Amino acid sequence: MATSLKIDDALKGRLKDLAAQRRRSPHWIMLEAIRQYVEREEARESFREEAQASWTAYRETGQHLTGQEARDWLSTWGTDDERAVPECHE
User: Fold this and answer.
1) pLDDT (tens digit per residue) in 6-47
2) 28: part of which helix (H) or strand (E)?
3) Which phi and psi angles does 80 have, rounded to 5°?
4) With left for phi above 0 and alpha for psi between -120 and 50, is residue 78 left, alpha or beta?
5) Residue partners of 82: CB distance under 8 A and separation at least 6
6) Contact 21, 28 (CB under 8 A)
7) Which of 28, 43, 59, 77 could form a disulfide with 24 if both were Cys (CB 3.0 to 4.6 A apart)?
8) CB distance 73 to 83 below 8 Å
9) Angle between helices 26-61 and 9-22 (to 10 degrees)
């Protein structure tokens, strides 16, 4: 799929300078920037959807962990006393 971008002269100059510094083409720099942006936005949307699903489940069931319960559990990660996920409760 061929796509064109219209960028102003100042940005075009900055892009050329950066590409020269990185020994990459301006095309590569633009593709990499777009790829990183899309990945970041996809991750953000996935997080938002997961949070919405969690909120919906909480409203339907009342099941949850307190912040302190979560912190206590997470503090054991990577230790010899690593604990299993605590049970949710009302």
Assistant:
1) 999 999 999 999 999 999 999 999 999 999 999 999 999 999
2) helix 26-61
3) -70, -20
4) left
5) 76
6) no
7) 28
8) yes
9) 100
